[in-house]
Design goal:
Blueprint lengths: L5 E2 L4 H9 L3 E4 L6 E2 L2 E2 L3 H10 L3 E6 L6 H10 L9 E3 H13 L7 E5 L2 H9 L4 E3 L11 H9 L7 E6 L7 H12 L3 E4 L5 E4 L2 E4 L1 H12 L4 E2 L5 H11 L6 E5 L2 H10 L4 E5 L6 H5 L9 E3 L11
Parallel strand pairs: 1-16, 2-5, 2-14, 5-6, 7-8, 7-9, 9-10, 10-13, 14-15, 15-16
Antiparallel strand pairs: 3-4, 11-12
Helix pairs in contact: 4-5, 7-8
């Protein structure tokens, strides 16, 4: 029988006991710390409290539109002190995987990117050649000449060996067609993450997983995802931070990414917050994808801990 999650909000003794179990907190960002550019109340104080207790905080996000330095700028603008090395985003995870694990041999080592500048920045840092992405030449309608050039391959770069799909605010028929032609010619199909939705402005919009679905339908392939809940990302985090999984807690708002990530990664605990995607009824359902060990209404409820 699945264990019933422990509700911590308003219970100082339980919160203290919870905090004492962990040395490291992996924090999702969208839906946990903020929604879009709206910082949730009490977040800065909560993070200060965790650090004052000697806890290590790592920001783990599936949002691939920003690089780690971009994320640090956002954290700073919202009043959250951070170090760029405390940030682990899916764009960074993807670049690390391509450059240090796949190690594609030249010349077939170029990446065709569906996504924003965050992916490009991290690939550039890792020395991975790429095309597509934010290239303004691809932000247009497809033409009869494009159809011909894609069909005969003359519009394709023969050195592309990987297609990496992330959240792209300028997705269009031309980009999807190019990605499809590369994959059907043998390119590996990777995704930064498979989140179906993006929490923004206190509602939801299409996420990176919704961008890659047409390619899944066309190719019959599922991409290797490099964000949560992929254990490739957990292994990379463990390697970078040398953490003890049994003393680490994953904090998130989404059962099928954050909570599943922590459970499959064998972490000591998972904490769900109710400020984002998943609600209590989702883990109480018979077919729940994952059930957290603990939950709070909002992350700042942890401030009820007694020092």
């Amino acid at each position: 029988m699945t264990q019933i999650p422990k509700y911590l909000t308003g219970d100082s003794a339980a919160i203290n006991e919870f905090l004492d179990k962990f040395d490291v907190f992996l924090l999702d960002c969208d839906g946990v710390l903020w929604s879009g550019d709206h910082l949730f109340e009490g977040i800065v104080d909560t993070l200060e409290m965790l650090r004052a207790r000697g806890k290590r905080v790592v920001f783990v996000t599936n949002n691939s539109t920003k690089s780690r330095p971009d994320y640090q700028k956002k954290l700073t603008a919202l009043g959250i002190p951070s170090d760029v090395e405390e940030i682990f985003a899916s764009a960074y995870s993807s670049a690390i995987y391509i450059s240090r694990i796949l190690k594609p041999p030249a010349p077939k080592n170029k990446v065709f990117v569906i996504g924003e500048s965050g992916i490009e920045s991290e690939l550039r840092t890792e020395g991975v050649p790429f095309l597509g992405g934010t290239d303004p030449a691809l932000r247009r309608d497809i033409t009869p000449e494009d159809f011909s050039g894609l069909a005969d391959g003359s519009l394709l770069d023969p050195d592309v060996g990987i297609v990496l799909a992330g959240l792209d605010f300028h997705i269009n028929y031309l980009k999807l067609s190019m990605a499809y032609q590369y994959i059907r010619r043998g390119a590996k199909f990777l995704a930064t993450n498979l989140d179906s939705t993006l929490p923004m402005s206190q509602t939801f919009f299409p996420g990176a997983g919704s961008i890659s679905i047409p390619l899944v339908n066309m190719t019959g392939q599922k991409p290797l995802a490099l964000g949560k809940p992929s254990q490739a990302m957990m292994d990379a985090i463990e390697g970078k931070f040398k953490l003890d999984r049994s003393r680490t807690c994953m904090v998130g708002d989404r059962l099928n990414t954050d909570i599943q990530f922590g459970i499959e990664g064998g972490l000591g605990g998972t904490l769900a917050v109710l400020t984002g995607v998943s609600k209590k009824e989702h883990w109480e359902a018979a077919d729940a994808v994952a059930v957290p060990a603990y939950y709070v209404d909002k992350l700042s409820d942890l401030r009820a801990a007694t020092s």
